[in-house]
Amino acid sequence: MSGLLAKRILEIPPSPTLSVNAKAAELKAQGIDVLSFAVGEPDFDTPVHIRDAAKKALDDGQTRYTPVPGTPELRKAIAEKFKNDNGLEYSIDQITVNCGGKHSFYNLCQAILDPGDEVIVPAPYWVSYPPMVMLAEGKPIIVPTTQENQFKPTRADLEAAITSKTKALVLNSPSNPTGSVFSSAELDMVADLARQHDFLIISDDIYEMIMYDGLTFDTIAGRPGMIDRTLVLNGVSKTYAMTGWRIGYMAGPEEIIKGVNKIQSQSTSNPNSIAQAATIAGLRGPQDFIGRMLVQFKKRRDYVLERLNKIDGVSCHTPGGAFYVFPKVDGVYGGKAGDLEITGSVPLAEYLLSGANIAIVPGAAFGDDACIRISYATALETIEEGLNRLEKALKDLS
Ligand code: GLU
Questions:
Q1: Which residue range is the domain that position 386 belongs to?
Q2: Is 111 in the same domain as 253?
Q3: Is there a single domain that holds both residue 180 and residue 75?
Q4: 13 & 138 share domain
């Protein structure tokens, strides 16, 4: 039988970050010494007090359905987080908890997009934004940016992309994959455009706590009139090293949150009850873990930058946050490794995996073929060895 799959599924690729990671794991399982810099996932363990809260929830019998948008206690803890960290006031009916940050974004697209609605996505973008928009039959409008501009769109770039069909714009600061951070003035500019042209902002703040060099997080939702047109997405995966627990959350206008809850009630129901209890402990418990993690990330970032910028044909801007570098590597394009010509980031990634046993994600997956993404959320010794291999592999190109 042919035509088994729906057209919208055929139009999207599987997640490249997850598939490169799976490929690296497969090679490792075959005994090949692959070093993976593919997936963005803190290499630290979830703090003990969070794990203890999960064990207690289990022993206390918190093993049944919870309300679809999450327990009132968890939503209260999230409301407190928004107030204390971001100065944003939300009632618990304006907050929903989902199965990871990715699920928040997915549900939101399903809730707000009609066929043909446009969503502006500045590139480089996180790999799953455009496919998730497309799965909701929306149209991603990609706005390219440049390394010279620290990969951030200018007002003119965004204005050129706005049409009468613009429903929303995706903001991700600090950014995955570039680590770029929007300045206050840039957030003012984006807010101004949203008010003027009447569209929503989807602010994915998942890297809020992972910032360097004295930079502090600023939220677009706090600008005049923006609380009513901003969906703030966040989660515990990155802040508390809880990727596998799958807890993301979102706050915004109650009407939209209700729409998201309707979708969730018809699909996944509530997120995992044990993980919800653990999340309360994360949000309300000691926060010193984050500072300790940041010290390690910063050391690694500085090391990676220093090494990369010394390699011929490679240049890397300094990311202000997240745990990725996004070096421009098109200086080595045109080189050859045997029969393989390095025509772009995809063959380069293939060459690095097969020829040097290092897994990175090609920039093309993020909408910028001149670059590659390296996640430095891994031990410094692994990073050092990985960079040795990268440097040698690029030198070996003829
Ligand atoms: N956000 C992470 C990354 O970009 C997680 C993997 C994913 O879900 O794409 O690597």
A1: 7-45+289-395
A2: yes
A3: yes
A4: no
In a domain, 187, yes or no: yes
In a domain, 2, yes or no: no
Q: Judge if the beta carbon of residue 176 lies within 6 A of ligand 1.
A: yes
For tokens 């000691």, the residue is 286
Task: Place 398 in a pLDDT band, splitting at 50, 70 and 90.
Answer: confident
Q: What is the CATH number of the domain that holds 319?
A: 3.90.1150.10
Span 38-76, pLDDT tens digits: 999 999 999 999 999 999 999 999 999 999 999 999 999
- Residue (of 57, 128, 109) closest to 272 by Cα position: 57
In which band, very low, low, confident or very high, does the pLDDT at 332 lie, cut at 50, 70 and 90?
very high
Q: What is the chain's mean pLDDT, rounded?
A: 97
- pLDDT one-digit tens code per residue, 211-257: 999 999 999 999 999 999 999 999 999 999 999 999 999 999 999 99
Whether residue 272 is found in the same domain as residue 293: no
Residues 6+ apart with CB under 8 A from 371: 124, 147, 177, 326, 327, 328, 329, 330, 345, 363
Residues forming beta bridges with residue 211, ordered by sequence position: 321
- 213 C-alpha to ligand 1 centroid (Å): 24
204 and 164 inside one domain: yes
CA of 177 to the centre of ligand 1 (A): 9
Task: Compute, in angstroms, the gap from residue 338 CA to the centroid of ligand 1.
Answer: 32
**Total domain count, the chain:** 2
